[in-house]
Amino acid sequence: MFKKLGNYFLTGLFIALPLAVTVFLMLFLIRNIGAPVSEFALIPILEYFDKTVPTEGIRGIAVDFFSMIVVIIIIALLGLLSKFIVARMMLSLSEKAINKIPFVGLVYRTVKQIVDTFSKQNKAVFQKAVLVEFPRKGAYSIGFLTSDTVGEISTVSQEKLLNVFVPTTPNPTSGFLIIVEEKEVKILDMSVGDAMKLIISGGAVAPEWKKKQG
């Protein structure tokens, strides 16, 4: 009986987990995006017309949800406007102004560089999924080939080296840059996306693979 109960629990957990994660993500966005916008912008505007604007309970959450939607729409409009020359000039001037502000400019440039690196426009940063011996001999990790090693490092080593990014599990936004001899890197057939799923799931979601004939 206990075994069946355990199986039922696991089945229910797998069904409920995607929904729970979705709800958690929505509440996170509402609290961290919608609530601040409501407090500093939307609620003062609404209270100007009606003093009975709800700020707590389900209605308060609805106001924060509406604020989050407004922010998402504004961000989408910025993306749309970026296609036009005048808007690009305005964005460029804004960036220059921000870059001149002490400390704020440094933070902005750093974040922008990270975003640009992992944006869709630069998705080719991860060229192929690979297998490397890391962090020691006999222990293997999945990594992503980013480029050939050039410059001083390649010259000093006098070997054909490759730059490989090895992400951490389950958060692949952090990881290690390792420089490995080409002969030590095993190229995998799986796509970068499938390899990322495998890493995020901690090995639970393995992509299907059929051995090549011949």
List keywords for this structure.
alpha+beta, five-stranded antiparallel sheet, flat, 214 residues, 14% strand
Write a structural description:
There is one protein chain. 55% of the residues lie in helices and 14% in strands. It has helices at 2-49, 57-81, 85-99, 104-118, 152-157, 192-200, and strands at residues 128-133, 140-148, 161-167, 175-181, 186-187. The chain has a five-stranded antiparallel β-sheet with strand order 4-3-2-1-5, covered by helices on one side. β1 and β2 (140-148) form a beta hairpin. α1 crosses α2. The mean pLDDT is 77.
Low-confidence runs: none
Spatial strand sequence of the major β-sheet: 4-3-2-1-5
Give the structural class: alpha+beta
Query: Order of SSEs, N→C?
Result: HHHHEEHEEEH
Strand percentage lies at: 5-15%
Can you count the beta strands? 5
The Cα radius of gyration reads 24 Å
Arithmetic mean of pLDDT? 77
Shape: flat
